[in-house]
Amino acid sequence: MIDGIPLIDAHVHAPALKGLTVPWKDWTGGFSSGETTRGLYENGLLVPERFHAYLEQQGVDIALVFAEYSPKVTGIQPVEDMLPLVEYDPGRVRLVANLNPHLHYPAAAELERQVALGAVALKIHPVHGGFPVNARALYKAYALCEERGIPVVVHFGTSVYPGSSNRFIDAGELNDVVDDFRDLTLVLAHGGRGWAYDVAAVLALGRPNVWIEISGLPPRRLPEYFANFDLARLGERFIFGTDWPGVPGIRANAEAVAGLGFDRALLEKVFFRNALTVYGLELPS
């Protein structure tokens, strides 16, 4: 909790280091907190007990941990690497699936497999995976998510990692998915970071099934990034996330969001209520 408000971090990376291709300093954002993060690992694996203690210390009630299949950029971070974290602390740690149409065919079958392992959402990363979000190979997976109420998190923002394909931050391709799956819940991770903030904001304000997840964005700069919009009104569509470990700290980011001047009711929506609604979660007792 942060000042008595439950906290859900909806965007956490916690892979085994054997599959990570990005240098440690880059992966942790160059922040001094990188050394703290390193201390949570042993033999290249995140130690579940240490991760649990870290989340507790940071005030995190629920963390969504992401798999990723992007061999050209960040490497293969398979779902199986996350399972020990979930099994150790199933009330606090939840799994998010990942699909890459270059690796998974048929995509819907792989989604079924990852959902059976406990995934509560699906993450799509066009920029790292090198594919358009409207790739036809993903459409049956989207249809499955729409049918079952599984939210889809789309990386919608630039990446500085070598091998990234930022041309796939495409408003037209995203709009195809929004228009073709009108009942599909979409979460725009990073809120259009780089040059698409306005696109993300317009979609989130105009479509009840589209949300903005503010991971990877320094909270104090949100008024600048979304200067063309009423931040409090747009904040109704925000979901808190950090992109950990590439941040100074989860608690530090949450406190920075609290410093934006939102009233308590809105902070509750940003910190946990919106995520409970979108991901179908319950706070641990």
Structure description:
It is built from 13 helices and twelve strands. It has an eight-stranded parallel beta sheet. The chain has 285 residues and is of the alpha/beta class. The two termini are 13 Å apart. The radius of gyration is 17 Å and the shape is globular. It is 38% helix and 19% strand. Helix 3 crosses helix 4 (79-88) and helix 5 packs parallel to helix 7. The protein has one domain (8-278): Metal-dependent hydrolases (TIM Barrel). It has helices spanning 24-27, 33-38, 48-58, 79-88, 107-116, 126-129, 139-148, 171-180, 197-206, 222-225, 231-235, 250-258, 264-279, and strands at residues 8-13, 41-42, 45-46, 62-66, 68-70, 75-77, 93-99, 119-124, 152-157, 186-193, 210-213, 238-239.
